[in-house]
Fold Zinc-binding alcohol dehydrogenase family protein.
Amino acid sequence: MKALVCTHPGQLTYNDIAAPKLKAGHTIIRIKRIGICGTDLHAFEGTQPYFSYPRILGHELAAEVVSTDSDTHQPGDLVTLMPYINCGTCIACRSGKGNCCTNMQVIGVHVDGGMAELLSVPTRLLLPANGLSVDELALVEPLAIGAHGIRRAGVEQGEFVLVIGAGPIGLGTMEFARIAGGQVIALDINQQRLDFCKDKLKVEYTINALTDDVTERLKDITNGDMPTVVIDATGSLKAINNAFQYMAHGARFVLIGLQKGDISFNHPEFHKREATLMSSRNATQQDFDQVITSMKNKLVDPANYITHTVKFDKVADNFASWLKPETGVIKAMIELD
Ligand SMILES: NC(=O)c1ccc[n+]([C@@H]2O[C@H](COP(=O)([O-])OP(=O)(O)OC[C@H]3O[C@@H](n4cnc5c(N)ncnc54)[C@H](O)[C@@H]3O)[C@@H](O)[C@H]2O)c1
Ligand SMILES: [Zn+2]
Ligand SMILES: [Zn+2]
């Protein structure tokens, strides 16, 4: 079967590889859609930590069941995948937090993923389509990241939720903040993306950190209180360090975005707020289920996200262009028949 292999940074090659054989506890799926995310782009660039080559990328998947040894799925069923292979025995897994398993293996990151015709996956990680389209199914995983961050924050009705970073992850976070009843404020340095928030996601408040006085705007919007929930979805150290001052007293600050450096903040400022700082890693089945239900109920429109589509045999030619913000890419989607 055909697979697209990232042989080393900057190089994607179509190879013929052996088709997977059915093993106990596994299901063989035929890939229908593959969403491209920042992780794939960084792996291609060679800037993704903990990454080894060669690797078959692709973890945002919609697929059809080909063969399975379980009776929970039938051949021909459409499915999506929770791409996080957790160990099931570590402290996180034992506490129902398999999303932050100490031995996490992400499909398409630590082990080969979905840029191939067929893929063998643990059956327990598959979720039924529930009437969703293949495009919708491939968007479930990236949206679940935001849903998880909002669940971590415990957003309540009417709260001001500042989401910093309006990339695919931040946009999904904004949607689930709204679904939780929050009043969303989007902060970015890219006006095109802020316009997207206003036009497509109907986010009421947008702030451009390059041209606006962020603190003044936040005070205006929140009647002087400042946001009680602040979420980073930039992965920018500068944005994260700045964001501590945007928190209301008693606020929660959730880091969905990830960067490599040390975060530093003023302790007395943090103390006087009695603030809470949390990280948010991957997503749980509860988050995946919430995304699927929200899509079914038309609370999230996948058409807003998919800005680029390409056939599987054209991916190698187009991949590098998705690294360029000027292409206006939010979500590039690979189509297989
Ligand atoms: N929690 C998880 O498990 C998880 C999963 C996937 C991705 N992520 C992380 O989420 C982050 C966002 O991912 P993405 O794919 O949406 O990235 P992206 O690069 O597409 O979007 C980031 C956005 O942040 C904006 N930004 C950058 N610096 C800024 C600043 N100083 N102030 C305001 N805005 C700024 C950019 O303009 C951009 O729109 C990344 O750090 C990624 O690693 C986390
Ligand atoms: Zn992803
Ligand atoms: Zn574990």
In short: The chain has two domains: 2-129+305-335, 146-279. Residues 37-38, 145, 164-170, 187-190, 193, 209, 233-236, 238-239, 256-258, 280-282 surround nicotinamide-adenine-dinucleotide (ligand 1) (CB under 6 Å).
